[in-house]
Design goal:
The chain contains four helices and twelve strands.
């Protein structure tokens, strides 16, 4: 059994190296505008809050700016309370934190904005009564985030550590984070295990540098130096650095 596991992980590791290579080639062969001239406006993909009466929770992600986008993405959380005319957006941003600014930002950008020119992707959502019941827990989790004045790109705590913390703390939302969300495995607070962000299993991690997640939604994920190698059995797919999820969405 151990031999089969090691061989399987070896194949995943090789695929991850190839995936990172492909992502690197894509980055250097494409346009690389400066972040100040890139798009930060709405992509027009979010629901119209004035037309949607029900409560909504959404989680978005977009490739990070510059070379960091080869390996990772930036994620954030959006909520719309029942009958509310607007969405609220919560995320962690590193800019200004070293100077004393708070890491957690609210409504800094439109709910479905481009991130330094990279289009947002809807990672998951829940609606209706289930969302309405979860929103108070989610806001409480945002307020309880323990690293509001700290930001470390790698291995964390970063923007993805925040999103994972909130999903984990809110509990029962059932939204998982993709393999490109580097930092999602940073548990912190001196802990080495916690619930998986989806709430459907558990993860074990040493400061986000090495660990494992076993959950119904995430499948089997191995975290190595912040990079995710994994297999989703429920919706068959491979999870690889650089390429992300390859298989069923």
């Amino acid at each position: 059994m151990l031999t089969v596991f090691l061989r399987g992980f070896g194949l995943l590791l090789l695929a991850g190296v190839l995936g990172t290579g492909i992502a690197t080639v894509r980055y250097f062969s494409g346009e690389r505008p400066h972040w100040s001239s890139a798009r930060w406006d709405s992509a027009g993909s979010a629901p119209d809050p004035t037309a949607e009466r029900e409560a909504i929770i959404q989680v978005y992600g977009a490739r990070a700016w510059g070379w960091r986008g080869i390996f990772g993405m930036h994620t954030w959380i959006a909520i719309k309370r029942e009958n509310a005319p607007i969405f609220e957006r919560y995320e962690v941003v590193g800019f200004g934190v070293s100077g004393g600014a708070r890491a957690v930002r609210r409504n800094r950008y439109p709910v479905d904005a481009y991130w330094a020119g990279n289009a947002p992707v809807l990672l998951g959502e829940i609606r209706g009564e289930r969302a309405a019941a979860a929103i108070p827990r989610l806001i409480e989790a945002v307020d309880a985030y323990p690293y509001d004045h700290r930001y470390t790109i790698w291995p964390g705590p970063n923007s993805n550590s925040f999103t994972a913390f909130v999903l984990r703390r809110a509990g029962g939302i059932g939204i998982e984070l993709p393999p490109l969300a580097v930092g999602k495995d940073y548990i912190g607070q001196g802990r080495w295990y916690a619930r998986a962000p989806s709430g459907t299993g558990f993860q074990f991690s040493m400061m986000g540098l090495i660990g494992m997640t076993i959950a119904a939604d995430e499948g089997l994920e191995i975290n190595l130096l912040g990079l995710t190698f994994g297999v989703d059995f429920t919706r068959p797919a491979l999870k690889l650095p650089g390429l992300g999820r390859i298989g069923l969405s």
